[in-house]
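Person: I have long wanted to understand how a fold can be written as tokens. Underneath my words sits a plain record pairing an amino acid chain with its backbone structure tokens. Those tokens are not coordinates but codes from a learned vocabulary of shapes. I should like you to check that the lines agree and flag anything odd. The protein I mean follows directly.
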Amino acid sequence: MRLPFLLAALCALSACAPPAQVSKGDPQAEVGVGFGARLPGMALGGGGSSLARDFMDLTFAMESGRRLEVFSRFEGPITVGMAGAVPASAPRDLGALIGRLSDEAGIDIAPSTTGQATITVEFANRAELRRLAPMAACFVVPGVSSLGEYRRLRGSDAVDWALVTRRTRAAIFIPADTSPQEIRDCLHEELAQALGPLNDLYRLPNSVFNDDNFHSVLTSFDMTILRATYAPQLASGMTREEVAARLPSILGGTALPDTVVPGPWVQSIEAALGRAGGVEARRSAAERALSIAQQQGWQDNRLAFSHFAVARLWAGSDPGRALAEFDNAAALYAGLPGGQIQIAHIDMQRAAMALAGGQNDAALRLADKAIPVVRSHENAALLATLMLIKAEALERSGDPAAAAALRLDSQVWARYGFGPDSVVKARMRDIATVANRAANG
């Protein structure tokens, strides 16, 4: 019986799963999708001291945990250019992102018109990039403008972020042979890191600077952090103390001491979400992360994400436990700034499980609740998945015409989110098979 595997496959569509490894087929007819207005005024989280602490923790450390002593940014106008095998969807998505960075973060940034860009986005084969950075879907490097230049300087001080005191050039490397949505998501995260913070914090619920990957595009919180990064009160070369002293005039409040996340929790979460090890080992890692979060007394995104990780890994074999943990996660996310998208991810999981259990009305209700939120957060892959789950529920509820119309409507989102038609059709078959298993008992 393939049902547990198929349920796990559906759960893996959530944001915390590794990006889909797909090959780019023929150029897509849809080189961009229109999501409409994003959610207005997404909450920034704590103000004053909390926001200043977040800025300091994001700015003066790297994802590896390495501490940074000097503040760096680009000084003066910034231009962004593209090179390599540029996918059809990339110019539109990059143009929209540059517009947001200019309008919302106040950064002096524009597309390159001369071919000599401050930041170069180079597209290359995924396998080639993995040889250089095996654990990264995409990455950014200082002091270079091409992949060839990075190969020559790799391992040298010239490309060490910790030694940068003023940013002058950077290159972003993104796989060309992947879905348009993954390309767009890489553009958002890597361009934001090229411009500003080099760290990710699991405690942040409403930011792309978080390895839980719930947010696909830069949020209002992220734009606030980037606007502060380019505030006139700051300058490249400043020390931690100098930046902290100026933050009250920029963000309000006082920069609190760094909050150190216990290494074992991060290690456990990474083991739970990684590809290495069997499902039992990953479940044990998720349970360990949850135990650490509870022992620490956290009531933030880290505890919620721990519940989510446990739920996701039990969804295929113990639906009761999974649903209880999804409920625990959702209750926490409901009280966190920007938690709507996390709850929408959970509702997708619940809807898939309801569909598998033959509870079509519940699947319809959950999908309808999540779809507007997901559309506002510009996640085409998740939107297409919810639409396909809803279509299967409509089919099983006796409305095949509505189901067929919804499947047709989902195609533009699915192609943007998943890539080639072969991947889209495989996703449709998985969801249909879950529903068929339920119908056949």
Remarks:
- Residues 26 and 420 are 7 Å apart (CA to CA).
- The radius of gyration is 22 Å.
- The first strand starts at residue 78 and ends at 84.
- Strands lie at 78-84, 109-111, 119-124, 139-142, 170-175.
